[in-house]
Design brief:
Shape of chain A: elongated
Order of helices and strands of chain B: HHEHEEEEHEEHHEHEHEEHEH
Oligomer: heterodimer
Helix content of chain B: 40-55%
Strand content of chain A: 25-35%
Radius of gyration of chain B: 21 Å
Structural class of chain B: alpha/beta
Largest interface: A-B, 29 and 39 residues
Structural class of chain A: alpha/beta
Largest sheet of chain A: 8 strands, mixed
Strand order of the largest sheet of chain A: 18-17-19-20-26-25-24-22
Radius of gyration of chain A: 41 Å
Chain lengths: ~700, ~300
């Protein structure tokens, strides 16, 4: 077809060369000539070739004019999905990737900025009456967002206000939304635009199964679907990210150094050396380190930090790199505890000339206080005899250590169980006074009691602690320790009979006899040693692991009921109370500065508060009117940190599977390509080129044939 | 006398007076001239002494006179012959082609008169043969100023017309000439080269010296026409309508081929061949031609 068919009237001009030829022939010049013999002499084919040359030149001239006329009429090869009428309404479905990777900075602007401009260019090619559905990927799926609108300006305004999210792009999910939108309007011409960077992970879920469903939809929509892919950004695969920040050991104690581990990842092909990383506590830089990263590898950076104040705090790590910036920083909410309140209940008689297990424990848990030197101890220790029992409470003590006690009264057992049930922690260590039968009857009660395991008997052994779970906070200190577990001899242990179903062995002797077992009990936790914490049955108190093990144990136990302060997007902030709190509502400040109210609700015998509006990564501050604020951190996922682009083969597969055409995001190129798809492929430019060739050919031949030798 | 000035204007005469005609070979003649006779016999008589002129043969010096007068004199005999020359002038229709510089026939006629003037001035014998498709007028070679008038009268009454056959004219000239002569052909030579070669061969067989002075217009060499043109034959040929830009190549190829054949024929048969265009002033044509002959 022709876009300007009226121009075809100019085809009549193609006879002009013929007319001129005939006129020229008719208006010949008459010459009286004497040398006629040279005009008529020569072979006949030379004369015939002269006539043929005349005809060929005439033909070229006629073709030139005819081709020019046809080109000016703008012929078009109709595309398969071209609109059947010039003014067919178009439903443009724009899938815009605003995932974290779109924050990648290239040539001083983010990929999202380029994508937004491409969307504006798409909108500018639509006309009054056309509809637009905008689907954002990188955000949680919102089924309502694919509703079409004819208000193009509002869509443009909405697009203009977008910033990169922290989520992961899921092109398959977005395509499914688009598919549903198209099926709701089957009689309309649909144009689907996929504006995204080239990150491979975005397209992961576009698999064979998805493609089968998609192609059936395409067949259903027949010719009324045109699909375009507009890739923005380059194919850079270079990014360094902080993947995680963790405090692997036991909870932090005020003024006691705690280990902070950072995991960094280099996604790119370039090695990084001396990469600076800074650590901040509550916004103030507290440490700086450098690290080296080989191409496509991870590494761990460790720092030991002290916190001078207790309470809820935020730890941040930052590095400086190019490319994606959103993963160059990570936050972590930490709870710094006051020194653990430890109550040691012992059955031993203490004397000045002999150290009891309680003495060893005190030395390990409060070494500065026990030795009378200045320093910060991780624990505040009280020692009472089993007969000096006057009551225990989680309000007063955090951890109770039962060290070498004999049979307890029912009331004592009940108090201990209540203490543990309410969230306190108990450490049980045997001794010469331990009564196996009463332990089984009163403390274990076939798993009903707080003791993790029943006792068969005490046995003499020749053993040493051989294995320990160094991923457990109690034994995390072993990771930084050369030489492993010490060879401290153990001569007597409790031989355990059975264990409660929720008991877990944290360490064992050679021969697999348990050394340390843990179990939860109510809201509390119990650690059970199977040998003394004094020197009666072993030489552990004089070994190098005794102090760090005991300190780690009580710190671990003190932190078991700390609320989860580091959340994933969408994971709620939850608090629970044993008693009805004085204030039943708290204020939550979001990372963007907005504030919300969170209420406390009663649930059975407990009171809980649940705040679920945590999709936005960043720091949340929860504060009761008369209480100290608590920090919570929603950590941005690192799903988009890997910038690995889609491979060439994968692109080819996607293009074939989804039947899309590539579009250049630049305004004019995009407009031309879309117009060409809508109206068909124009031929006027190739035809004009042909006209130029014909003209050149005619001039060259005429010149050559008329050249004088 | 107006018709004389048509062929010989005063400026031309003045220039001609400075030129001299010499023949490469001696031909038989009746009047004592400047050329040595090949015919020797008892009837040779002393005629007179004349002062030695540069170019005279030293063996003709009269040493007795020299000894006596101490001046060089040569002896002239009755048997020294003059040059016999026949001007073979083409009056066919093609000679009537008129370019920017005038018609070829006028040019050739003026050339013939100029040559006649030169030779008759040196007491040579000059004749005139006018031809077209056949010999049309024969003026036998004679010396003297009256011969010039006769030549001019003949030329004045002529106009170019009809076909031409140069070869035939040359053969007929050979038939008419009893003795060796210098034959100067003044024509555009628009005749098949084979025919001309035959005529030349005939003349050379009779030991005549042949000079062909081909007279052309520049247009006939360059063929400068554009667009369409109808060429009407000036010798009765059928007209041809052609787009000249396309037929130029054929014309020029044929022309060059004919020219080459003529040059080869004259070279082979030891004739002299020169091409002149009407754009070249007549006196330059003569000067060029005569100087070549003097050097040779």
């Amino acid at each position: 077809m022709f876009l300007k068919p009226l121009m075809l009237a100019g085809l009549g001009a193609a006879v002009i060369p013929l007319v001129l030829h005939l006129l020229s022939k008719a208006r010949y010049r008459s010459v009286e000539w004497g040398a006629m013999m040279f005009l008529t002499a020569g072979p006949m084919h030379a004369q015939r070739s002269t006539r043929l040359k005349q005809l060929l030149l005439l033909l070229l001239r006629v073709c030139m004019i005819a081709t020019l006329t046809i080109a000016l009429a703008r012929p078009v090869i109709r595309a398969r999905a071209a609109a059947s009428a010039e003014d067919a309404r178009i439903h443009a479905i724009i899938i815009l990737d605003r995932s974290a990777s779109m924050g990648y900075v290239e040539q001083s602007r983010t990929r999202l900025a380029e994508a937004k401009q491409a969307v504006i260019n798409i909108l500018s090619n639509l006309h009054r009456g056309d509809e637009v559905s905008l689907i954002l990927t990188g955000d949680p799926v919102d089924p309502g967002q694919a509703q079409p609108t004819t208000d193009l300006q509002s869509v443009a305004a909405r697009v203009g206000a977008l910033v990169p999210s922290y989520g992961r792009a899921n092109i398959a999910a977005a395509l499914e939304q688009a598919r549903q939108a198209m099926l709701r309007e089957p009689g309309v011409t649909h144009e689907l635009y996929i504006v995204s960077d080239q990150q491979a992970s975005s397209w992961e879920r576009v698999n064979d199964r998805f493609v089968t469903l998609w192609q059936s939809t395409q067949a259903q929509l027949n010719a009324s679907l045109r699909t375009f892919a507009i890739p923005v950004g380059g194919a850079e695969a270079d990014n360094v990210a902080i993947e995680s920040i963790e405090l692997p050991g036991p909870p932090l104690i005020r003024d006691i150094a705690g280990k902070v581990e950072l995991r960094l990842r280099n996604f790119g092909p370039i090695p990084r050396s001396d990469l600076p990383v800074r650590i901040f506590a509550n916004g103030k830089q507290v440490a700086q380190m450098t690290t080296n990263l080989a191409p496509d590898s991870s590494s761990m950076a460790t720092a030991w930090l002290k916190f001078p104040a207790s309470g809820s705090q935020v730890l941040s790590a930052r590095l400086t790199s190019s490319g994606l910036r959103s993963d160059d920083r990570i936050d972590c909410a930490v709870e710094v505890l006051e020194p653990v309140r430890v109550l040691i209940i012992t059955g031993e008689t203490r004397s000045a000339d002999r150290r009891s297990s309680a003495d060893y424990l005190r030395l390990a848990l409060a070494p500065f206080e026990a030795s009378g030197e200045a320093g910060v101890d991780p624990a505040v220790v009280r020692i009472i005899g089993v007969d000096d029992w006057w009551g225990i409470s989680p309000d007063r003590d955090d951890v109770i250590i039962l060290s070498n006690v004999g049979p307890l009264s029912d009331d004592q057992v009940r108090q201990l169980e209540q203490f543990c049930y309410a969230g306190g922690a108990i450490v049980f260590a045997p001794g010469n006074l331990t009564d196996v039968e009463s332990c089984n009857t009163d403390l274990y009660r076939e798993g009903e009691g707080f003791l993790p395991a029943g006792i068969k008997s005490t046995i003499n052994v020749t053993a040493h602690v051989a294995q320990a779970d160094n991923s457990h906070p109690v034994f995390d200190f072993l990771q930084d320790r050369a030489g492993g577990l010490p060879d401290a001899p153990v001569t007597k242990i409790l031989d355990l009979e059975d264990r409660s179903s929720d008991a877990r062995v944290l360490a064992s002797f050679a021969g697999n006899k348990p050394f340390l077992i843990e179990r939860p009990f109510g809201r509390g936790r119990v650690l059970m040693f199977t040998t003394t914490l004094g020197t009666d049955w072993n030489a552990l108190p004089t070994s190098s692991i005794y102090l760090p093990m005991m300190q780690s144990a009580i710190r671990y136990l003190a932190g078991i009921n700390l609320p989860q302060r580091n959340l994933k997007p969408g994971e709620p902030i939850e608090l629970s109370f044993d008693h009805e709190p004085a204030e039943t509502a708290a204020t939550v400040t979001l990372p963007n500065g907005q504030q919300r109210r969170a209420r406390v609700n009663q649930s059975g015998q407990r009171w809980t508060m649940r705040f679920g509006e945590t999709n936005l990564p960043g720091r949340y501050l929860l504060a009761f009117p008369n209480g100290k604020p608590s920090n919570y951190v929603v950590q941005a996922p690192r799903d988009e940190s890997d910038p690995t682009p889609v491979s060439t083969e994968r692109w080819a597969w996607l293009q074939n599977a989804l039947n899309f055409k590539w579009l250049n995001p630049e305004k004019d190129a995009l407009a031309n390509a879309v117009t060409s798809e809508r109206t068909g492929k124009e031929l006027h430019l190739p035809l004009l080129g042909l006209v130029a060739l014909l003209a050149l050919g005619e001039m060259a031949l005429a010149r050559m044939w008329s050249r004088q030798s | 006398m107006a018709h004389v000035s048509r062929f010989l204007d005063p400026s031309l005469v003045e220039r001609l007076n400075q030129l001299q005609v010499s023949a490469r070979s001696v031909v038989e003649g009746n009047t004592v001239g400047q050329h040595r006779s090949p015919v020797k016999g008892a009837s040779i008589e002393f005629r007179q002494h004349r002062f030695y002129a540069p170019g005279d043969e030293p063996r003709r010096l009269d040493w007795r006179v020299f000894a006596r007068t101490e001046r060089p004199y040569i002896k002239e005999y009755d048997e020294e012959t003059n040059l016999r020359c026949v001007l073979l002038l083409d009056r066919s229709g093609s000679m009537g082609y008129r370019g920017k510089a005038g018609s070829k026939f006028d040019y050739a006629a003026r050339l013939a008169v100029s040559l006649s003037y030169l030779m008759l001035g040196q007491t040579e014998s000059v004749g005139l043969a006018i031809f077209g498709s056949e010999m049309q007028h024969w003026l036998a070679p004679h010396a003297g100023t009256h011969q010039l008038s006769r030549i001019i009268d003949v030329l004045d009454r002529l106009s170019p017309q009809g076909a031409s056959d140069v070869g035939l004219a040359m053969r007929e000239t050979a038939d008419r000439l009893e003795r060796r002569a210098l034959v100067i052909v003044l024509s555009d030579l628009f005749t098949p080269a084979k025919s001309i070669r035959q005529g030349l061969a005939r003349l050379r067989h009779d030991r005549h010296e042949v000079i062909a002075m081909r007279i052309l217009d520049a247009n006939e060499i360059e063929f400068p026409f554009r667009k369409w043109a109808r060429f009407r034959g000036m010798e009765g040929e059928a007209s041809i309508l052609t787009e000249t830009s396309l037929s130029r190549q054929i014309y020029q190829r044929n022309f060059r081929e004919h020219q080459r054949e003529l040059e080869d024929s004259f070279h082979t048969l030891r004739g002299e061949f020169a091409t002149f265009t009407t754009e070249k002033p007549l006196i330059e044509t003569l000067t060029t031609f005569l100087r070549r002959r003097v050097l040779v």
